[in-house]
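User: I've been trying to design a sequence by hand for this structure and keep getting stuck. Would you show me what you'd pick, starting by listing the structure so we're on the same page?

Assistant: Good idea, let's start from the same input. This is the structure you sent:
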């Protein structure tokens, strides 16, 4: 069979760091092929090579059976290869319609794109994915999920023959994921080939016809769902490198049910409102309890977390900690009270990208912890090395620049920063976005351990699976209000969807 795309023995290193040592990959026409692997296994590097953004050190690429040597992204686009980037490629200062049309001028005969034509194209492209944003909004003003959708719209508007999606659903809610999947199936029926990179195994088993797995920069296996069952147990061992019996705990194993009724109320939120965003939100969290914020994306979950962590001012309402009213005017005041936020946008809010892992991990300890004595360099190194181990950072090198880490490993640093500070209340804003399945399990184990030591957790996760597996209670947020509360065994996919869509 001749493949639409074939990659043989691709190798790529960055300053001595081997990202790909032997990547092999094939893609058939009109199929959706998953690309899976742990954080840092080389998926994005591979995707960037086949979309012409970087060149391999060695290896061969074939398109329709003929060898190609991509020298630029532009060349890949001419060959009808488009990529949806994990770290979005949009220009924040430009508008939605300008971003969609960016680079299109060169595809027109005179190198000029008429404004009216460009606006129409952009409008049509947005409608294709049912994206409800204005053509004239600046990208910097958009919510993360809208930015992600726009990135997808932009790639689709090029009518590619090969579409590469690098973690396209990481910031999307389930309804948006459904629309995307519908579109991908349509593309497949129109003989478009799709490479789909995701850490959400249920997405891979649901949408892909086949998958290829990378481990440490090498292709280690393939599963063809046309001949093999859509079973996560075939996939996870390929990612982790552990045999099935070493790894037979399901990633969705549910937190055992326990009652918190007798535990002390740590956080009490009473009639919290924020103009045009939140309306009379009230809830309590008890010591050691993990409470989820569910609902469709962008219903006010993020605003609740931002107000409690001092990044956003409330319009009215009360917040009590241990039965005492507190006034949180900035993030420093939240931290003083033991409230820590793990932010959603790691690039923007969570990291000093141009500093190394050591600086990023030690910063909160040095700058924020009220210590009587300064830590010695030796103690700092010990602390950082312990955190690197806990978060299984790859590579486990404190000197590595954070901007040179893979996306998932950057997120591990964001979480690692706060673990050493003994929080009282941990606010998590989609903490495992882009984190691989094994690390995600380890991180939730750390969060469960913290909760068993009495830390109270408020978790927003865009993936319902994470709420189901890890929460004692889930509050459903709809149009800025808490409209439902689901507890224990009642926290299941069916209930979460029904309550989020208000169809109960
Ligand atoms: N520009 C760069 N400079 C230095 N090292 C890099 C660079 N880009 C990638 N790497 C390294 O190459 C390896 C592979 O990274 P890559 O981003 O391809 O992994 P990935 O499988 O996509 O991971 P994730 O699932 O976390 O996104 C990692 O060790 C990463 O740190």
């Amino acid at each position: 069979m001749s493949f639409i795309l074939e990659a043989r023995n691709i190798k790529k290193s960055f300053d001595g760091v081997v990202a790909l040592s032997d990547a092999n990959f094939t893609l058939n026409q009109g199929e959706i092929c998953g690309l899976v692997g742990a954080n840092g296994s080389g998926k994005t590097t591979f995707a960037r090579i086949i979309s012409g953004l970087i060149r391999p050190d060695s290896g061969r690429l074939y398109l329709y059976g003929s060898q190609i040597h991509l020298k630029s992204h532009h060349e890949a686009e001419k060959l009808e290869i488009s990529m949806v980037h994990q770290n979005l490629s949009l220009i924040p200062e430009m508008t939605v319609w300008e971003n969609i049309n960016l680079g299109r001028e060169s595809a027109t005969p005179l190198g000029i794109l008429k404004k009216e034509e460009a606006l129409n194209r952009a409008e049509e492209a947005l409608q294709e994915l049912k994206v409800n944003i204005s053509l004239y909004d600046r990208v910097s003003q958009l919510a993360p999920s809208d930015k992600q959708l726009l990135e997808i719209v932009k790639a689709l508007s090029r009518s590619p023959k090969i579409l590469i999606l690098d973690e396209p659903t990481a910031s999307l809610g389930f309804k948006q994921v459904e629309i995307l999947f519908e579109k991908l199936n349509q593309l497949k029926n129109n003989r478009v080939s799709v490479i789909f990179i995701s850490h959400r195994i249920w997405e891979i088993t649901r949408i892909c016809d086949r998958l290829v797995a990378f481990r440490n920069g090498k292709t280690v296996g393939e599963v063809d769902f046309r001949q093999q069952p859509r079973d996560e147990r075939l996939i996870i061992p390929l990612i982790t490198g552990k045999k099935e019996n070493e790894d037979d705990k399901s990633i969705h194993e549910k937190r055992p049910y326990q009652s918190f009724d007798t535990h002390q109320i740590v956080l009490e939120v009473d009639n919290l409102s924020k103009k045009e965003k939140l309306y009379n939100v009230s809830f309590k969290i008890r010591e050691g309890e993990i409470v989820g914020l569910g609902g469709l994306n962008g219903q006010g979950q993020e605003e609740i977390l931002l107000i409690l962590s001092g990044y956003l001012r409330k319009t009215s309402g009360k917040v009590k900690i241990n039965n005492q009213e507190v006034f949180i005017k900035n993030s420093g005041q939240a931290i003083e009270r033991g409230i820590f936020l793990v932010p959603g946008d790691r690039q923007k809010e969570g990291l000093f990208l141009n500093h190394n892992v050591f600086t990023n991990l030690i910063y909160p300890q040095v700058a924020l912890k009220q210590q009587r004595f300064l830590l010695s360099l030796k103690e700092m190194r010990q602390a950082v090395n312990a955190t690197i181990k806990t978060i299984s950072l790859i590579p486990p090198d404190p000197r590595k620049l954070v901007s040179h880490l893979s996306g998932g490993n950057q997120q591990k640093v964001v979480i690692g920063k706060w673990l050493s500070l003994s929080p009282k209340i941990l606010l998590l804003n989609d903490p495992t976005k882009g984190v691989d399945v094994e690390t995600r399990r380890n991180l939730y184990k750390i969060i469960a351990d913290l909760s068993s030591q009495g830390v109270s957790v408020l978790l927003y996760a865009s993936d319902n699976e994470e709420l189901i597996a890890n929460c004692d209670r889930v509050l459903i947020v709809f149009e800025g209000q808490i409209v439902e509360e689901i507890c224990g065994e009642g926290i299941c996919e069916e209930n979460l969807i029904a309550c989020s869509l208000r169809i109960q």
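That's my pick for every position. To get oriented when you compare it with your attempt: The CA atoms of residues 292 and 474 lie 4 Å apart. The first strand starts at residue 5 and ends at 14.
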